Amino acid sequence: MNPPASAAAARSHDHHPAPAGVHIRQARAEEYEAVGDVTVAGYAGLVAADQDYVNELRNAAHRAENSELLVAVDESSGEILGTVAFVLPGSAYAEVAREGEGEFRMLAVGPAARGRGVGEALVEACLERARKHHFTAVAISTVWDMRAAHRLYARMGFHRAPERDWWPVPEVELICYLKDLREAPQT
Predict the structure, then answer these.
(1) Per residue in 100-137, pLDDT tens?
(2) Which domains occur in the chain, in start order?
């Protein structure tokens, strides 16, 4: 049963389809440390602990100042399960988005929350934001080793965009995925 139109209209922009017991919303300042911890934990094994990038992953406050920092929260415990930064083209965290495209960065789900649909709900929240901005596509950079993320992106209609692959430093190749928002929704 659908809610009455007035109830649907009253919903704020931070309510998104999410797994039962999980709420997607903007991160709050008092949560930034926990968000940083979840992000670092989500990248464990993919980024060496001594790399400068770990400090960037941990710095949720900076992401919140320069993007829309979203969190997936366990409704019963309040625990931060996952996070993602939705990025506008030309902003401080934009890497591969072109004019008229959105981007998301640093998608991370804590190890204990994996397999619950948290990552998919966070990506869907980014896609919703991109549609509200009337963007034509959403881009994401990832590394070859993030196989689970690649499967998620493919399942959600993203396609490889090898012409946008790039190397932020000589030893790290980032590969790009792109979702065309002009395509018909998947059924």
Answers:
(1) 999 999 999 999 899 889 999 999 999 999 999 999 99
(2) 17-180 (3.40.630.30)
